[in-house]
Amino acid sequence: MKVHPRLSVSQASTIGWPLDRDLELWSSLGVREVGLLQRKLEATGDLAQAIAVVRAAPGLVVDNLAVGDSFELANPAQWERGRDRLRGCLETAAALGSRCVVVTTGGPRGLSWEGAADALSEAIAPVVDEARAQGCSLAVENTNSLRLDISFANTLRDTCDLARRLGIGVCMEVNNAWCERGLDETIRRHVDLLRIVQVNDFVVGTLQTPDRAVPGDGDIPLRRVLGLLLEAGYGGLFELEIVGPRIEAEGYASAVGRGLEHVGALLSDLGA
Asked: What is residue 187's three-state secondary structure?
């Protein structure tokens, strides 16, 4: 199949597979751009070897590396360990040729939203400066409100405001933003912050997370949301990130292939 040039695939979309099977699928589908997970690379047992294997994959480009949360915001004594974790991820990203590391904020653990934002600002500031000096960027993701264990930034609007304060970019997760108030305005005001847009679908009535659907199988008005992004001037990649029981039941190869076809067709129709 021919993959639209504005599409990439997150390694989370094949969360249960080892790295070698990920690489085989991407090659068979013609995927060129990918987002990797630090934990899947580490799960190989030899991070340096995993990096070498990815670098040797013909034509593969690593757009971003996702690490998740690194800080216990209510525990300042942990912050230096969290900084070291991010520094290690920056080294991995540099070795892979990626210029972006995606993070979540860390859970508030009894702090107010404002208190958590203050804590994160102090905790992450040295690494933001170091990343910038290395020519790499950090991007914070808007997360599901059920996942307060990993983040307090649950709306795209709040995530963008937080990112401006921190001096970093944003990874927009469509699944967590599509129905929020003022989405059009938020995208227009903050499109300059958007580093990655993660695309998937959601079936209304779902009561668990993660339980994403292949784009086109759910209720997210993807044509409208993607159109808003393109009209606002977003020029980055749209990353397929599908995870959950629906994807497991269908099988990764089928789900990823169908997702790429559906989103690629939408982007083509929208003139991307």
From this structure: helix
